[in-house]
Amino acid sequence: MSQEMSSLSVFSMKVSVALLVFLCSSLLVVEGKRDGREAETACASQENCLPEIFTLLREMSTTIAVQKVDLSHTNTNLRSLERQMEELKNTKEESEIKVLTEKLNTLETKMKLCEQTIEEQKTQIHEMSVTNTEMKSKVEDLTRQIEVKKVAFSASFAVSANKHIGPLTAPTSLIYDHVFTNIGDAYNPKTGQFTAPVRGVYFFQLHIFAGGSNPAGANLLKNGQHMIAAYNHKAPHDINTSNGVSLLLEVGDVVSVTLGQGSWIAAYTSHLSTFGGYLLFPM
């Protein structure tokens, strides 16, 4: 392209020289008006210069045309290079984007694995928590069973002088308010009732003493239902009777004693009449 520009410069100089010659000839023509011979010489010189100028102009036109074509090719090549550079730039950006996308996908995969691990750990923690709760409940149950295994009571009547209770025309609850033993606090000396703290088999016993002028008797009830009785007919001397029973009780079942209808029972300071029971084993 630099050679083409140099050629164009040479032609431009040639044209400039020719134009100068032509102008000089024209001046000679003007001066020739004063001198006819000089005018003829100038005209001849001018006529000789014109063909050269025209030739140079044609060459210049040809060169310019060629230069235009070359310039067009150059512009085309330049645009092609620009497109290639843009494509390279886009390719580089696409490559970088691809690398970043791969990194992002890797991070997303790691994040999903972390989330999955966290969910698994949450599940394990929940299962461990449930297991821990179950074990705690079992430990509490075992502790409670160990504690409730120690259930036993024995009671009599709290009196300051010897007396009899009854006889009465209707069954009446007997309240043994003098407590000898009440391990587990299942017996209530204010109501005379025993409440089962745990499901299991319990053994209960009644011992009754009374004067012989009236029958002596009492009934043992479970939740108000008659289970057993201890009874003895009247006699000319003091009488006594006893009975015992093993019962399967659920938690909250109530065992109590009532005085038999028409019977009486001695409430002596020597505690000859007693009511007691204990847990044989839990179920």
UniProtKB/TrEMBL annotation:
Residues 1-32 form the signal peptide. It is found in: Secreted. GO terms for cellular component: extracellular region. This is C1q domain-containing protein. It holds the Pfam family C1q. The keyword Secreted applies. Keywords: Coiled coil, Secreted, Signal. The keyword Signal applies.
